[in-house]
Design a protein that fits this description.
The complex is a heterodimer of chains A (109) and B (119). By secondary structure, chain A is mostly beta strands. Chain A has strands at 4-5, 9-12, 18-24, 33-38, 45-48, 62-67, 70-75, 84-92, 97-100, 104-108. Chain B has strands spanning 3-7, 11-12, 18-25, 33-39, 45-51, 58-60, 68-73, 78-83, 92-99, 106-109, 113-117. In chain B, strand 7 and strand 8 form a beta hairpin. The A-B interface holds A 32-34, 36, 38, 43-46, 49-51, 53, 55, 85, 87, 89-91, 96-103 and B 35, 37, 44-47, 50, 59, 61-62, 95, 100, 102-112.
Chain lengths: 109, 119
């Protein structure tokens, strides 16, 4: 069982708001979550760090939140260019390991 | 401009060895921790290894512990991954990443290098 669980897919229409969850197992302890976006054929890029912080250049349409051992990524004003894979990640001290969620494929209908 | 450029990926037989390199530029290399992350074809991201500033600490993922070795040469602004006892399941794109130091976030990624393990 993965330490971080994401839904395999999510979808929305242009302009909509979508949310992607990342559920941590009960034994991961107190972690901070990061989110990555991987557009088709490209390397991943950092989207959200430290649960809700945005790196320079990331639009404020993207936001993150954390509640206990889970986190969420919200995308507002959905655009066709947002179509791709989204991964949550965390450094899990109890296993001394970086852990990625399985990824969520976002489809813009 | 921060750049990370991986190289060394190729076709290798099961049981073989390979050394990947990552050349960095545009930042003070010695001041950052670094990681290797891979992605099997059509699959998700998998963290492999971490190396801190000055070469320690070092951590490995369970899938590669005992087979892969991460190292760095700050004088050459380069990161390496020595891969031994390669298996079919090691096939994938290998990325080097810069660790921002903030909650282990990878703030920069290379374009990746493809490793194919097959007979």
């Amino acid at each position: 069982q993965s330490l971080l669980t994401q839904p395999p897919s999510a979808s929305g229409t242009p302009g909509q708001r979508v949310s992607i969850s990342c559920s941590g197992s009960s034994n991961i302890g107190n972690v901070n979550f990061n989110w990555y976006q991987q557009l088709p054929g490209t390397a991943p890029r950092l989207l959200i760090y430290n649960n809700y912080e945005r790196p320079a250049g990331v639009p404020d349409r993207f936001s993150g939140s954390r509640s206990g051992t889970s986190a969420s990524l919200a995308i507002t004003g959905l655009q066709s260019d947002d179509e791709g894979d989204y991964y949550c990640a965390a450094w899990v001290g109890v296993v001394t390991s970086r852990v990625f969620g399985g990824g969520t494929k976002l489809t813009v209908l | 401009e921060v750049r990370l450029v991986e190289s060394g990926g190729t076709l290798v037989q099961p049981g073989g060895s390979l050394r990947l390199s990552c050349a960095a530029s545009g930042f003070t290399f010695a001041s950052y921790s670094l990681n290797w992350v891979r992605q099997a074809p059509g699959k998700g991201l998998e963290w492999l290894a971490y190396i801190g500033r000055g070469g320690s600490p070092i951590f490995y993922g369970d899938a590669v512990k005992g087979r892969f070795t991460i190292s760095r040469d700050d004088a050459k602004s380069s990161l390496y991954l020595q891969m031994d006892s390669l298996r079919d399941e090691d096939t994938g794109v290998y990325y080097c990443t810069r660790d921002s130091g903030t909650t282990g976030a990878d703030d920069y990624w290379g374009q990746g290098t493809l490793v194919t393990v097959s007979s």
